[in-house]
Structure formats: C-alpha cells, structure tokens
C-alpha cells in the first residue's frame, strides 16, 4: 500500500486540514500519515484561530516519519501555521529523494476568515517551497499573493498568475477559480510551463465547501502516488471534489463541510440505477 504524508493543521470541525487529507487518502486506498503543524478552530462568528505547534515538536514528528517510515510515495502540504514552521518543512523536504511528488496547498488565505499569514510567509513559499513543488494549488487570493497580482478576476488573469507562480520553480500550477470568477462554471487552470488546460464543472448551489482545497490537493497526491500523469491526476481530483461538495454535510444555512465519500456514493447510485457515470 502506498504511503502518503500530510503535513498540515488540524481542523476541529474536520472539514479540512489533516482530517480531510486522511479521509481522502483512505478513499483512494492509500495509507495516510500525518505531521501536525497547528490547530485551527472556528469561533461562533466563523473566524479562524490558529495555534501553531512549537518548532521542536514539529521536528520530532518529521524525524519520526523518516526514521520509521522512510518509503513515501507522495507528500501533501497544507496549513503550516508560522513562517518558522514553513522554513523547517522546506529544509525537511530538501533532504528527501527528489522523485517523491510534493503537492503544496499554500494556505495563505482562508475562505472562512480574512486570515492571511504575514508577508514573510509569501517570500518563504516563493523562494524555498515552490522550487520543491511538483504541483501547487493556490486559490485566487493565494495566487494573488504568490504571483504579485492585485486582482485576479478572469480566466486570462488566472493564466497569467499561473505563469508567474511557475517561474518560482513549481513543476505544475493549478489556480482554483472557485465561486469568485463570474459565470455558472467553476473553472480551474492547470499550467505545466508550456500548456494551459481549463478544468470546468458547473457551480453547485451549496455552501458545503469547507475542506474543498485540502481535499483537492490530497486527491492529486493520491493520483501522483498511483503513477498518473499530473494533468490526469488534477482532472480526476476535480471530479472527486465536485462530488465531495455535492454530497457535503451542512452545519448551518451558510456553512458546511465537504464529504470525501461523495464520488463513491455517486458511482454506487449510478450503478444501482444502471446509468452511465
């Protein structure tokens, strides 16, 4: 069984964070491992509070991974908590075999709150983490921070941002359009340095999107661990997240979690009804 490591924060309500990562790994038949970077909690006003683990504890976790489970088939990065943690993780990744896929979900901005890491974190991502990334998957706000653009408002803007971010050393870039790009279609842009591909699905009339970004990056990690080409892994992940949102679990009228069992449920329902998937 393939081993996939997530280095990420804990989401107390479990829609995103390492909880989402581990559930995604299981849906793909992978063995999930985790290193905890921080704990994110949601207040009554839906503001995010982030408490980071100390650097010493982070190093102890990373050392255990390399000591007891040296065979890793992919690594997924999520919320890192602090700039110091980001630097520590960059050093850890640089010591590993170069053929291990590294998928970075650069959690610099959260859709649940106005939280943005200090600008020093952007520099660390640009100079130390992106050169180690097989694929990086920023949302629009994160793409603005990493690309230096001030307002990404169209698919053409997304393509320019992808090119800017690619120049920092990532092998492939996926800009997630989400709900902010106008129109009825949810468009993501994939770029590998030579070719752009638009990945398009219909927008869903639901707010069960907490954890969508974490799940997307984790599903890509699983695809790469299985040996899929990057573009195919991204396309498969787009479908996986679509059904995770469609069958998500609401907490209130305007907030809810994705559910990583959504694609399996969809396929089962199609099989029982004898309809093509």
Layout of secondary structure:
Layout: E1 3-11, H1 17-27, E2 31-42, E3 48-52, H2 55-68, E4 74-77, H3 83-94, E5 102-104, H4 119-129, E6 135-136, H5 140-147, H6 155-166, E7 172-176, E8 185-191, E9 196-202, H7 212-225, H8 230-246, E10 249-252, E11 255-257, H9 262-273
Parallel strand pairs: 1-2, 1-4, 4-5, 5-6, 6-7
Antiparallel strand pairs: 2-3, 7-8, 8-9, 10-11
Helix pairs in contact: 1-7, 2-3, 3-4, 5-6, 7-8
Give the key terms.
277 residues, nine-stranded mixed sheet, 9 helices, globular
Protein described:
It is a single chain. The chain has 277 residues and is α/β, with parallel strands linked by helices. The chain is built from nine helices and eleven strands. It has helices at 17-27, 55-68, 83-94, 119-129, 140-147, 155-166, 212-225, 230-246, 262-273, and strands spanning 3-11, 31-42, 48-52, 74-77, 102-104, 135-136, 172-176, 185-191, 196-202, 249-252, 255-257. The strands form two sheets. It has a nine-stranded mixed sheet, sandwiched between helices. A two-stranded antiparallel sheet has the order 10-11. β1 (3-11), α1 and β2 form a beta-alpha-beta unit. α2 (55-68) runs parallel beside α3 (83-94), α3 (83-94) runs parallel beside α4 (119-129) and α7 (212-225) runs antiparallel to α8. It starts with a strand and ends with a helix.
Instruction: State the shape.
Output: globular
Total of helices = 9
In which order are the strands of the major sheet placed? 3-2-1-4-5-6-7-8-9
Instruction: Say how many strands there are.
Output: 11
């Amino acid at each position: 069984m393939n081993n996939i490591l997530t280095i990420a924060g804990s989401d107390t309500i479990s829609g995103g964070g390492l909880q989402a990562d581990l559930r995604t790994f299981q849906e793909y038949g992978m063995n999930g491992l985790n290193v905890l970077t921080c704990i994110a909690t949601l207040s009554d006003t839906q503001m995010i509070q982030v408490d980071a683990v100390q650097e010493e504890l982070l190093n102890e976790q990373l050392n255990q991974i390399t000591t007891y489970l040296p065979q890793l088939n992919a690594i997924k990065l999520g919320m890192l908590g602090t700039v110091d943690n980001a630097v520590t993780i960059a050093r850890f990744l640089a010591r590993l075999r170069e053929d291990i896929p590294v998928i970075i979900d650069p959690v610099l901005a959260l859709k649940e709150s106005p939280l943005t890491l200090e600008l020093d974190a952007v520099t660390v991502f640009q100079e130390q983490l992106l050169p180690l990334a097989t694929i990086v998957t920023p949302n629009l706000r994160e793409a603005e921070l990493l690309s230096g653009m001030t307002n990404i408002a169209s698919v053409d803007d997304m393509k320019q941002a992808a090119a800017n971010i690619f120049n920092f050393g990532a092998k492939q870039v996926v800009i997630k359009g989400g709900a902010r790009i106008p129109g009825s279609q949810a468009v993501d842009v994939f770029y590998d340095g030579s070719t752009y591909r638009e990945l398009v699905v219909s927008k869903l009339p639901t707010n069960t999107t907490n954890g969508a970004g974490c799940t997307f990056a984790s599903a890509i990690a699983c695809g790469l661990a299985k040996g899929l080409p990057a573009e195919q892994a991204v396309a498969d992940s787009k479908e996986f997240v679509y059904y995770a949102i469609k069958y998500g679990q609401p907490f209130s009228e305007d907030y809810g979690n994705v559910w990583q069992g959504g694609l399996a449920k969809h396929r089962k329902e199609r099989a029982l009804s004898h309809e093509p998937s």
